[in-house]
Amino acid sequence: MINVIGPLLLVTAALAQATLSPYMKINGVHPDWVLVLVIGWTVLRGLEEGVLWALIGGVSLDFLSGAPFGVFSLTMLLAALAAGLFHGRTFGTSIVVPVVLTFPLTFLFNGAALLLLSLLGHPVNWAAALTSILLPAAIFNTGVMAFVFPLLYLLNRWLNPQPLRL
Amino acid sequence: MAASRNRQLYIGLILALILLGFALDRMGYMGPVRNVLQLALTPLQSEISATARELSGYVESSADVRALREQNQELESLVNQLMVDNVRLKEVERENESLRQLLNYTRNNPQFTYETTSVIGRSIGVDPTNLLYFVYVDAGARNGVALGMPVITERGLVGRVTAVGPNSAQVLMLIDPASAVNAIIQTSRVTGLVKGNIDGTVSMERIPPSETVNPGDIVLTSGLGGNFPDKLVIGQVTEVTQRDQDMFQTARIRPTVDFGKLETMMIITSFEPVDFETELNREQE
Predict the structure, then answer these.
(1) Closest CA to B251 of B241, B236, B262, B266
(2) Phi-psi region of B275 (alpha: psi -120 to 50; beta: other; left: phi over 0)
(3) Using 50, 70 and 90 to split pLDDT, how confident is the model at B110?
(4) What is the ipTM of this complex?
(5) Best of A61, A69, A108, A119 to disrupt the B interface by mutation (most B CBs within 10 Å)?
(6) Domains of chain A, with CATH numbers?
């Protein structure tokens, strides 16, 4: 079941980003649904599944984007690796960890993507990027995670039922 | 220990896969894969975009508001058309005057009207990230679309085609930082380079400090460089700045095109961009 639902969810999220984002923009930025899903699932399920989700989500974004192929797969992998460090730590599967993590990881994801793009010759104005993209996107994604994580939690419970403790 | 090694191997394998894809893309082998995927996804994207447009219309308005909006749109469209007509007429007038002075042409010279062949494309998607400004249209190589062709709406310049699939094309918008268009101020004939910014705004750079540019001036494509035809409307100057350490002035431009609401676009297929590098290489050979 996981083999179908995960990729389907990620491809749908990438397609939504490519078609519906003009309708979801606030202050010029839209939520990175794929990134939010990858961070949430990595925190819930750990590095192995998180990395697989990062690969599927990143490749979907790469195919739909005008950027050179691999930029978003690599940066998504980076975000998943960082999120994997926090799987099962301190707060277990509490909503606090993914919500707090989303802010710096969005910075990491977009910042690393911009760095790669600039290395590949795309002009980047870092000061403008910080104020107009990196910061607003991090705030937006953090808010989105607060709504998405409970749904991911329920999906995880449905896909991986816990044995009853008597 | 073994689990940790397996995990490292697994992550390494995924990283290697991504790097392989990256390398194949740099060598140009991912193009056909992208084309096949685009071919498969275009109808789906088209449907989603159309549904979203319809839903957006329903959500935004009640019946009365809708009627008012339609009327407003009609009027806006009329104003835009008149503005573009006005700009074009001024250009024709100026060109007419200058040609008459230089070449002693007669007043009603017919070569000022030029025919354009175009393809209408509907927006089927945008770049899924917040970092790049691309739009995808449902017209491709099968419709005669080729690399570098300019894309416009009735309001002005949108950008140029940067990738072409059989049924779809990728358009680099004017607001992307990688976009650069040679431009001219309509009244003062001052030239500069219109570039996009990462925050989705547009500015005109490399304006000589001795030249006067005022807010409200209309900015057009100059045709220099051969990448775009001349006289396409880009926008209007809103602010002019020059810092002490800068060699040139910079003008902030408000584009006439609303890049957040692109629906139907026109690709000028009769215009062939000039690639100077190829031309020079050909001459040297």
Answers:
(1) B241
(2) beta
(3) very low
(4) 0.86
(5) A69
(6) 2-17+29-158 (1.10.1760)
